[in-house]
Amino acid sequence: MATLLTDAPPGMTAADIDGFRAVQRLAYDCAEAVAARLHPGTTEREATAMMRRWLTERGVRDWLHLPFAWFGDRTAFTGFKVPHQFFATGRRLTEGMPFILDVAPVYNGYTADIGYTTSLGPNRVVDRLLDDLATHRAFILEAVQAGRTLRQIYLDVDALMARQGYENRHRAYPFGVIAHRVGKVPDARFRPHAFGFGQNALRGLLKDGVRGHREGWSPLWNHRKMSDHPATPGLWAVEPHVGFRGVGAKFEELLVVEADGHAYWLDDDLPHVHRWADRGLHGTAVTGTAPDRLDTLKEPV
């Protein structure tokens, strides 16, 4: 008999938590493996094909969304006006160029959605943005646990980014979301996807939307009135995304919210968390970078 957890959303078992953690680690393993194989001249389309192949070879058959890759100023969604601009292009990597790999596989019925930021060789702007994102991870967790509304947390993250000298780039996503709920996806014989999104996983998000509309909450976390409530129990894929002079950076990982409002990050064994530990950064100890200090960094290509 499955064991219900006291530190998990209602009805979730130890096996469920392990399942979500396993697929999140699988997705990050994919991003790291593909990032290590990229070289000057690789295109965004080639990178997404590599990610999809890597995951399908390891048993992934369904998706919340297929892989995305953004190179250069596309990491900051420069000039993005319509949804199709998020899809991979023929943009080619060059030395020092920033890039983001983003993928949301479904494995054994569990969903992850991750974002991995790095650069092809040294890039001081990327390093600084990634350093300052440590503050956001700590702040978001603290604010959720304090019971603040999702809308207020979104606006507070906006203000934190402004103090750091950055732009909010997650506002460019559809509905301007900084996060969205994820859940289990029933196994299905047919696993269609359209416009890059898996229909089975999207069906669950839409059901959450209908239920939330009736009950006064939303599965989408943004700056709008629909998010003017504390985080509902479940798992949230959280992705604060900062931009500076045509360079963007983000992390994306799962946040677990319990019925009593307690919250925790699903896993600390993740690339960005290890990076911060290696650099001696501990979230709330990182106060951000003043704009005049950013001005001293090399202008991105």
Written description of the protein model:
This is M24 family metallopeptidase. Residues 20-258 form the Peptidase M24 domain. It comes from Yinghuangia soli. InterPro entries: Creatinase/aminopeptidase-like, Pept_M24, Peptidase_M24B. The chain is α+β, with helices and mostly antiparallel strands. The protein has one domain (14-280): Alpha-Beta Complex (Creatine Amidinohydrolase). Helix content is 34%, strand content 20%. It has helices spanning 14-37, 44-56, 124-145, 150-164, 199-215, 271-278, 291-294; strands spanning 62-71, 98-107, 110-111, 114-119, 167-168, 179-182, 193-194, 197-198, 220-221, 234-238, 241-244, 247-250, 253-257, 263-265. The strands form 4 sheets. A 5-stranded antiparallel beta sheet has the order 9-6-10-13-14. Strand 13 and strand 14 (263-265) form a beta hairpin.
Which fold does the CATH topology refer to?
Answer: Creatine Amidinohydrolase
Strand order of the largest sheet: 9-6-10-13-14
The CATH homology group name: Creatinase/methionine aminopeptidase superfamily
Q: Which sequence of SSEs, written as H and E, runs from N to C?
A: HHEEEEHHEEEEHEEEEEEHH
Strand content: 15-25%
- Number of beta-strand segments: 14
**Rg, Cα atoms, Å:** 18 Å
CATH class: Alpha Beta
| Secondary structure category | alpha+beta
Count structural domains: 1
CATH architecture heading: Alpha-Beta Complex
What is the distance, rounded to the nearest whole angstrom, between the alpha carbons of the first and last residues?
A: 56 Å
Mean pLDDT: 88
How would you describe the shape? Answer: globular
The count of helical stretches stands at 7
- Main β-sheet, in a few words? 5 strands, antiparallel
